[in-house]
Design brief:
By secondary structure, the protein is mainly alpha-helical. Helix content is 78%, strand content 0%. It is built from 13 helices and no strands. It has helices spanning 3-27, 30-37, 43-64, 75-96, 102-107, 112-123, 130-149, 156-183, 185-206, 217-245, 247-251, 257-269, 275-292. The chain is globular and about 55 Å long. The mean pLDDT is 84.
Length: 295
């Protein structure tokens, strides 16, 4: 490969990892913010309203920047993205956080890189080296082992909902990354939000709170964060990172999210952060460092 081609490829990878890291930092606040928001809103209304708000912002961006409509063949993949990251992950995590703490739910994020890589293999023909799967799988086993060994601190319903959320999110990430190579990162999430918009508006109206009294400022702040940052801004960086740096490789950055999320849960929500949680988070971060070499 000519030298300038190698340099361009290297720049693209580093650009991808930089964008991906910014996305992870933004996403780290999602579960603590959701935990706060479900204290004032029902999970169904929270899921619908955050999508409607983000869809409005996305529509404004698409119109302002005069973006071309996606092709008919893109509608199916966009529907998969919407199912995974607009509806599935937000709804299942909101339901899960009725049963478990945000600190516990954050540990399950350690499974998300493996789920993203698996769907990247199936949907985007992303093929890491065999050693990658060893280290990625080890990180995931650490998370599963923690959940099983510390069952008293959790809830089977909450844990099951988190596992479902991780599967759908991994699918949405991989499909969105594949589309981003052609449509652009922020365009993918904006079109996916618009596609889900009518159903989310109907759901928001059907679950409209009977009264707004008693809904405190923290719940409103949580709704604002997940609507603007978790549903839109984070994806601007995340999908571009996946498209430039590779789904499997950049996807491993999600293993940093437990560290950031646990810190936020402890500092902002005052939730107990067990030493075992920190140990699991440290273990999965070591796995991502090793996996990066073979992505």
């Amino acid at each position: 490969m000519p030298e300038h081609n190698r340099n361009n490829a290297s720049r693209r990878r580093w650009d991808g990892w930089g964008h991906g890291l910014l996305g992870v930092v933004i996403f780290s606040g999602s579960l603590p913010a959701t935990r706060v928001a479900v204290g004032g809103f029902t999970p169904l209304f929270l899921t619908a309203s955050r999508a409607v708000i983000a869809a409005g912002l996305g529509a404004a961006l698409l119109a302002l920047l005069r973006q071309k409509r996606p092709a008919r063949g893109d509608l199916g993949p966009l529907a998969v993205v919407a199912l995974g990251v607009v509806v599935g992950f937000p709804l299942l995590t909101a339901l899960a956080l009725r049963h478990i703490t945000s600190a516990r739910s954050i540990v399950f994020i350690g499974l998300l890189p493996l789920a993203t890589a698996l769907f990247g293999l199936l949907r985007a023909d992303d093929r890491p080296k065999p050693a990658f799967w060893l280290f990625s799988g080890t990180g995931s086993l650490l998370v599963v082992g923690f959940a099983l060994a510390h069952g008293d601190g959790g809830d089977l319903t909450g844990d099951g909902l988190m596992l479902g959320a991780i599967g759908l999110c991994g699918l949405g990430y991989a499909e969105g990354a594949r589309l981003s190579r052609r449509l652009g990162g922020w365009q993918v999430i904006s079109w996916a939000l618009l596609l889900a918009g009518p159903a989310m508006v109907a759901l928001a109206l059907a679950t409209w709170p009977e009264t707004w009294t008693g809904i405190g400022l923290p719940a409103w702040a949580g709704l604002g964060y997940v609507s603007v940052f978790s549903m839109l801004v984070g994806f601007v960086f995340w999908y571009r990172g996946l498209a430039l740096g590779g789904i499997a490789g950049v996807g491993q950055l999600q293993l940093l999210q437990p560290f950031l999320g646990l810190a936020l849960a402890g500092l902002l929500l005052g939730e107990p952060v067990e030493g075992a949680m920190v140990a699991v988070a440290a273990g999965v971060v070591l796995c991502v460092v090793a996996a990066k070499r073979f992505a």
